[in-house]
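PROTEIN DESIGN WORKSHEET
SECTION A - STRUCTURE
LENGTH: 98
TOKENS:
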């Protein structure tokens, strides 16, 4: 876990415009699903299963740009949830400052 600290530092980076835009898309999808509760209590294995489901949805969603963007944000959100769970675990163990 000692190498995790390198990747979870608190140094702020200036976001590229496309990353900032995509983060907004991710947040929009998260807010649409707030009624479902958070991911903090979910098992990482379940989050990984959901990530795979979302990748499948992205692969089969067709060519409509809005649908592609929404499904890509779903995929990214589940990846973020997995990373957040690991960051939280590292913080509790004293191995990261995420």
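SECTION B - SEQUENCE
RESIDUE ASSIGNMENT:
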């Amino acid at each position: 876990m000692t190498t995790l600290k390198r990747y979870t530092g608190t140094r702020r980076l200036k976001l590229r415009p496309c990353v900032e835009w995509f983060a907004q898309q991710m947040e929009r999808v998260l807010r649409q699903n707030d009624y479902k509760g958070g991911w903090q209590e979910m098992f990482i294995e379940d989050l990984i299963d959901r990530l795979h489901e979302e990748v499948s949805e992205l692969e089969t969603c067709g060519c409509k740009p809005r649908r592609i963007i929404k499904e890509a944000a779903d995929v990214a959100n589940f990846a973020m949830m997995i990373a957040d769970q690991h960051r939280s675990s590292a913080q509790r163990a004293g191995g990261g400052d995420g």
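SECTION C - NOTES
Residues 65-93 form the longest helix (29 residues).
The chain has a mean pLDDT of 89.
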